[in-house]
Structures are given as structure tokens and as C-alpha cells.
Amino acid sequence: MLGATTLRLIADALQPPLIYRRDLVQEYLVGRAVLAGEDPYSPIPTLAKAYLPDAEAAFLPHSTPHPPPVALLSFLLALMPYQTASVAWLVLEIFAVALIWRLLSSWMQLNLGIAGVALGTIVAIGWQPFMQELLYGQLMILLLLFVMLCGLAWHHGRFVRAGVFLGIALSLKLLGWPILVYWTLKRRWSSVAATMGTALLLNLVATFAVTPEVLFDYYVRIPGLVVAWNVYRLFNFSPLTVGWRFFGGTGSQVLSCFAAAPLIHIPGVASYVSALAMAAVLAVGLGLALRTHTTDVAFMILICLSTLTTPVVWIHYFTWLLPPLVYLFRQLLSQEFRLGLSTGGVIVIGVLALPASALTGLACILSGNSACVDQQVSFHAGLVTYLQPLAVVLMMWLLSRAHGNRSASDILPGCTRTSRAGAGL
Predict the structure, then answer these.
(1) Distance CA 348, CA 138 (A)
(2) Of 40, 152, 142, 154, whose CA–CA distance to 89 is shortest?
(3) How far, in Å, CA of 194 to CA of 182, rounded?
(4) Residue 195: C-alpha distances to residues 144, 166, 168, 170, 215 (Å)
(5) pLDDT, tens digit (0-9, with 9 covering 90-100), for 332-391
(6) Which of 9, 70, 264, 326 could tie 66 with a disulfide, CB 3.0–4.6 Å?
(7) String of b and e for 170-192 (b: at least 16 CB within 10 Å)?
(8) Residues 6+ away with beta carbon under 8 Å from 59
(9) Which of 62, 48, 61, 50 has its CA nearest to residue 20?
(10) Of 152, 181, 184, which is closest to residue 165 (Cα–Cα)?
């Protein structure tokens, strides 16, 4: 029922004027700029005025934050009218969700038929991260598909192929890089080389859509601006916001959004505290992944870690948590009842199921301002937005603990591991 209701909301979002407020607008405008031979990293409102006057692009008052290889996708979208491109992208993403479930079924021996895949797709669409992703037309579902292909290839000992799929994901958005760090620490050089080679190749191919000067300018200028645009946002779940939350306050330099005062106003230390918080999360995640003796568990932990270790973590980034959630649920069902782990699993699922509106409402209530008229909450009330990233950290720990010392074949019936795959660790 929830999935069907979400589909109705998504369908409504494909009608004017809402269709022009989707994030997909930026991809489409980048493609139009590429076709016209103009700078695709001009501010979105400037591009909208030239190529899509009906778009209300003031909600994106900056350049697109996505890397040049995304221009290759944008180019294809720009060959269609925007409304057609928006519908086509939605259909592609829903098909990708179904394919992700099919891959999950194969990987984890779920034995899902067509009906099971369809049901899983509807359930996923009803979950807040997928709903937000489909409403706004982002890239996360497509990236999750490549990460799933990467993990499945790694599971079967096809290390070069795994690196190729990770390289594709990294070239489209800088997500999944902890997997590359893990492979480096494990000295899996074929995967590392395949990842870096694929990412480099796709950036070189992107120079056919954008000039080398534009590509260079992007990597020198835009990532820093992305951090500056979003590090103060209350609903940016990245550990990189921790220092600013405690010592600088939240808000936005470019968008109207919820804000909270800092605990202590010492902005000079905010960036250092944020860097330490990011390093701590990375160290915990990598430590848990390195300690496990099972490639599948390590990979699921690394997917969780990848959702947190970027300067910007929005709710739709948690679409990546679908495989770890399914894996964790499968593990817990396969073991004898263990109260602590089961309780932890229920907490993780419950917290991650909370919509952003519930977190916003809770923050407002804790601030004594249930109406949230001024979009201002207290420091302590604003901390409720960290419930979900903390749940992701808890899930990493549960994955490492729920597995125990048993092999993947003990956990996943019918799942066997080749000696070559085991040697990958």
C-alpha cells in the first residue's frame, strides 16, 4: 500500500510545475549546455534561463556538483524534451530497483521469482530513501546497481570485473571509495588498478562532452564549493558536519532550510573536529571490515561506510543500505535467537524507516516550537538528525557480530565460495 501511494506521489511530481523542481533538471541542463558547446558548470539558474525557461531553478542556485562523466548521461537525456527525459529516467530507475532485487536474490540465495522481485521493488519504493530518490530524479539507484554488480563480481572472485564496476560508480559520484581503500589494504592490486583505470578512462571519454579545461576546473573548484554549500545543512548526515554542528551552527549559504545554533560558538575549530569525526567513522568501518574473514560481510560493511564518508549525505543516499539491510536480516533469521543482536536489528530498521518529516517534527517538538514556523531548532533538538547515521554505524557493528565465526555458506544456504574468492581477502 505504501509503495503504491509513493508511486502516486511520484506520478504527480511528473506534472508541471513540480516536474521543474526535480534534481534531474540539473542533469538535463548540463546535457543541453554540452549540446550547445557551452560551459555545463555554469550556475543552474543561468542554464535554465537559456535552455529551460519554464524551470523554477532558483532552488538550485549553484553549479551542478556531479563530475564530468555524468555529462555523458546528461547528453543522452538532452536529446529528448525534458518531460520525456524525466519519465524515461523514472522508468529506468524503477527497472534498476527490480534488477537490484534480482541480483540480491542471486547473491543471497533468496530464490525470488518475478512476483517476489515485484513485491520487493514496491516495498523498496515505499521506503523514504527510495521515495526521495525517485521523486527528485537523482543518481543513487543507478550507482547502487553498479555497486551491486561490483559486490557480486567480488563474491565470485572476478576481481578485475569488480574493479571496473566500482570505477564506473566512482566516476559518476565520489561514493564507494572506502571499498578501494579496503582493496588497497588487502593488496588486491588487480581490483585497485581496474577501478582507477576505469575511472580515468571515463573521465578521458568525458572530454568529448566537455573540454579538458572544464574537466580540470571541475576537480579544482567544484568539490570545495560543494562542501561550502552543504556542510552547514541540518539534514546533511555526513560526519563532516559534526564540527560545524557543535561549534559553528547550521543553516545554508544558498538555500532556505532548518537551522540550529551551535553548542559553543568557536568556528575556528569546527573544520578540525569535523575532520576527526570523519576519520573516526572511516577507522571504525574499515576496522570492522578488515576483522571479518568473510568477503560478503566485509563488502556489506563497506557499503554502509560508503554512505557516510562523503561531505554530503542526504536521505536518498541511504538507498545504498538496502543490500546490507537484507543481508543483516538474512543473517539474524539464520541464527538461533540472540536477544541483543535481534534488538539491535529492530532498532536499526525502525530508525532508518523514519521519514525526514518525523525527524523534523521531533526536533521542533524538542525545541518547544511544534509548528516550526521560523525553521529554527535548538542545538540539542537538532541532534535528532544524527539518529539515522548512528543507526548505520550500529548496523556495521551488527553485521560484524551477527556473522560470528561461521562461513558464508553456513549463513546463506546454497552459497559456496571458491578458493580464489577466499584468497581475495
Answers:
(1) 25
(2) 142
(3) 14
(4) 16, 6, 8, 8, 19
(5) 777 655 767 788 888 998 899 888 778 888 888 887 776 665 577 888 888 888 999 999
(6) 70
(7) bbbbbbbbbbbbbbeebebeebb
(8) 21, 255
(9) 48
(10) 152
Establish how many alpha carbons lie within 13 A of residue 390's alpha carbon, considering only the half-sphere containing its beta carbon: 10
Instruction: Please name every residue paired with 377 in a beta bridge, in sequence order, or none if there are none.
Output: 260
Q: Which set of grid coordinates corresponds to residue 154? A: 567480488
- Mention every residue, 6+ apart, whose C-beta is less than 8 A from residue 171: 67, 69, 198, 199, 202, 203
Beta bridge partners of 259: 376
Least confident of 132-136, 244-248, 401-405: 401-405
| Residue 285 grid cell | 568501518
Residue 30 cell numbers, joined: 548540463
**For residue 368, what is its C-alpha cell?**
518547544
Residue found under cell 554549500: 229
In whole angstroms, what is the distance from residue 174 CA to residue 167 CA?
10
CA-wise closest residue to 303 among 193, 407, 154? 154
- Residue 58 pLDDT greater than 80, yes or no: no
Compute the distance between CA of residue 413 and CA of residue 228 in angstroms, rounded to an integer. 48
Q: By mean pLDDT, which of 7-21, 22-36, 133-147, 212-226 is the weakest?
A: 7-21
Helix 267-291 and helix 295-308, axial crossing angle in degrees, nearest 10: 170
Q: ω before 40 within 30° of 0 (cis)?
A: no
CA 279 to chain centre: 19
Residues 6 or more apart whose CB falls under 8 angstroms from that of 35 comprise: 75, 78, 79
Give the position of cell 540465495.
109
CA distance 207 to 71: 10
| Grid coordinates belonging to 245 | 554542528
348-382 core/surface letters (b: 16 or more CB in 10 A; e: else): beebbebebeebbebbbebbebeeeeeebbbbebb
Helix (H, G, I), strand (E, B) or coil at 94: helix
The single residue listed with the C-alpha cell 533468496 is 110
Set of cell numbers at residue 123: 516495498
Backbone dihedral region of 239: left (phi > 0), alpha (psi from -120 to 50 degrees) or beta?
alpha
State the burial class of residue 46 (Cβ atoms within 10 Å of its Cβ: 0-12, 13-18, 19+): middle
